[in-house]
Design a protein that fits this description.
By secondary structure, the protein is α+β, with helices and mostly antiparallel strands. The protein has helices at about 60-65, 85-100, 110-120, 195-210, 260-270, 280-290, 325-340; strands spanning about 5, 30-35, 40-50, 65-70, 70-75, 80-85, 135-140, 155-165, 175-180, 215-220, 235-240, 245, 275, 295-300, 305-315, 315-320, 350-355. The two termini are about 25 Å apart. The protein binds 2-OXO-4-methylpentanoic acid. 2-OXO-4-methylpentanoic acid binds next to loops.
Length: about 350
């Protein structure tokens, strides 16, 4: 498919203070967009000025929530070049999400090519400071005006980008987590391992209640027994118990995180024992009480590595690693960020140069 390019003749002002960048409010000058129709496939691929997308009020996404997305980042190298981190894995996961949601797949190679062109056009939007990056949000949703419940026959796929800093207002400092023991995010056989908006909508009620009580995020438990750790919703979670790094396995109800996978590979290469197994909240609390829970942290593209300084379960709070960033979290953060920004060796082949 041919990629049409329409440059913006009205560039927007860029943020001048990188240190105060938050997450998700600022968008670059251009976007990529393409359209799909059953029987015709994808068509009209175009990079054009960032603008609104027109939707029919009967568009199926608004009623039955066929919508998927990805999140990845572009990092400015010291030599002025730009790195992407494991973009192939994001696009593979996007197509996996598409299949589960009965949506059309994209051509991963073509979309990566268009993503790179988009980043090159908006390269001056990629911030320079460590801890900042250009967040990239590929998204697909159902557009057919139709109210019967079935998969849509038409879709829009777009990529928008924008400069970001830390995801949480704590910056990269430890966060306080509330363990939700009633509401659930996803159930076995559901869509918990798919990057679809509905999972996030389902999480809002508890997250807002937790935030009102001063917590940063909710830690979800399994839907059957309300005992086993799942994820934090914007992050996967890992626990350092004694000398073992433990994380819940990918059994279909949590997101298969790319940062999670990277952290596990790095830790294994450092000779650490990394175990994917079911871990109950009782085990975590017991380890915290016995002093065996040395660290806990979340991983995600938006959050990178986010140390957990406190867990609250059934009205009791447990401080982890003295409420500070633990040694392992810091070492993993430095390693992964070093690879992403290109000043550390990338023995894994995770980096894809944009320019
Ligand atoms: C990401 O880490 O990029 C995500 O997609 C999580 C998010 C919903 C902010």
């Amino acid at each position: 498919m041919e990629l049409k390019i329409i440059p913006s003749d009205l560039p927007k002002p860029k943020p001048h203070d990188e240190a105060s960048l938050g997450f998700g409010d600022i968008f670059s000058d251009h976007m990529f967009i393409m359209f799909y129709e059953e029987g015709k496939g994808w068509y009209d691929a175009c990079i054009r000025p960032y603008d609104k997308v027109e939707l029919d009020p009967a568009a199926m996404v608004l009623h039955y929530a066929q919508a998927i997305f990805e999140g990845l980042k572009a990092y400015k190298r010291k030599d002025g070049g730009i790195n992407l981190f494991r973009p192939w894995d994001n696009l593979k996961r996007f197509n996996r999400s598409a299949r589960r949601m009965c949506m059309p797949e994209i051509d991963e190679g073509f979309v990566l090519h268009c993503m790179k062109q988009l980043i090159i056009m908006d390269k001056d939007w990629v911030p320079k400071n460590e801890g900042t990056s250009l967040y990239i949000r590929p998204t697909m949703f159902a557009t057919e005006p139709h109210l019967g419940v079935r998969p849509s026959k038409t879709y829009i796929f777009f990529i928008i980008t924008g400069p970001v800093g830390a995801y949480y207002r704590e910056g990269f400092n430890p966060v306080k987590i509330y363990v939700e023991d009633y509401y659930v995010r996803s159930a076995p056989g559901g869509t918990g391992d798919v990057k679809t908006g509905g999972n996030y909508a389902a999480s809002l009620f508890s997250s807002e209640a937790a935030k009102a009580k001063g917590f940063t995020q909710v830690l979800w438990l399994d839907a059957v027994e309300h005992r086993y750790i799942e994820e934090v919703g914007t992050m996967n979670v890992l626990f350092l118990i004694d000398d073992e790094l433990v994380t819940p396995p990918l059994t279909g109800s949590i997101l298969p995180g790319i940062t999670r996978d990277s952290v596990m590979q790095i830790a294994r290469d450092w000779g650490m024992k990394v175990v994917e197994r079911r871990i109950s909240i009782d085990e975590v609390i017991e380890a915290a009480q016995d002093g065996r829970l040395k660290e806990a942290f979340g991983t995600g593209t938006a959050t990178v590595i986010s140390p957990i300084g406190q867990i609250t379960y059934k009205d009791k709070s447990y401080v982890i690693a003295d409420g500070r960033m633990g040694e392992l979290s810091k070492r993993l953060y430095d390693e992964i960020v070093g690879i992403q920004y290109g000043y550390k060796q990338d023995p894994y082949g995770w980096i894809e140069r944009v320019c």
